[in-house]
Amino acid sequence: MSGEVKVGIAGLGRSGWRNHAAVLGTLPEMYRVVAVSDPLEERRREAVEKFGCRAYPDFESLIGDDEVELVVIATPSHLHAPQTIKALEAGKNVVCEKPMAATLAEADAMIEAYKKTGRLLTIFQNRRYDPDFLKVKEVIQSGKLGRIVLIKMSWHSFGRRWDWQTLKKFGGGELRNTASHAIDQALQLFGDEEPEVFCDMQRTLTLGDAEDHVKIILRAPGAPMVDIEVTRACAYPQSWWLIMGTQGGLTGSTTSLKWKYFNPEDLPPRQVDEKPTPDRSYNREEIPWIEETWNLGEGYKRGTFLFYEELYKTLRHGAPLAITPESVRRVMWVIEKCRELCEGRGCV
Hints:
348 residues; alpha/beta; Rossmann fold; Dihydrodipicolinate Reductase, domain 2; 2 domains; eight-stranded mixed β-sheet; six-stranded parallel β-sheet; 14 strands
């Protein structure tokens, strides 16, 4: 099977319009937007003018459109699970925005529905394709840094928010929304072990009732400790990435990284010496560092484009699904643990 995939987009807000409609419109050899749904008439008119598509005021009409084969669900977070299940049961393949669901139970219901219907379900964890993340993953897997001791991810900013994503009733808060991306990246680096989870969440600058400051620590025997901070209350942002290893380390941002490491064979042999040091000093030696850098070049592809290019290979050429719902269930599991911990301690 070849040719364009016919897409219906549910929700034409920030993500539905910028991350999905805009990108799909630049991939005409792969996708064609044939229908949209949104409660706002002006948004529907804009989509009709841009894509020449059909526009519906409600989700049910969208999934009842026989031409639609792939539904992109970019509606508010609390609607993701019920709408995904309805779309799957209507015989559609589904791309669901993050967060996958409001709860782990909802995520499990989505997985059950896609298995039962035999349709495709993937979650828009597009930041698995971020250039900086892919480079960090490459450096870690190269072994140059030795055993990874700590991975610190600092998604720092300072500022207020007052939109729907700040409200619990809509599935808002930094944990489900922004942190779901960081958690997903972290789990790719953490490995297959089930982590022990520590979490602290606070309301700081937000005008809503959901959290806007999240601290998560993941650890397990044989795995690196991962320290995640997603906050809107940091006036002095730290490096986006900080990685410590037994043979070196890495630091940097989404556009620039640097790392240094050494070859253990280049160090002189040492052994523990119980005698006082001759000059009353601490042990010190010159490390023969090897330093490397990476910078985001021109012409790079955003993760959103790579997400849809890979998905096309699955839909039309039978390639394995790159981002499975089961892999994103791990993200929902961590989110659920964070919720349980903070509800028990009353931190939000």
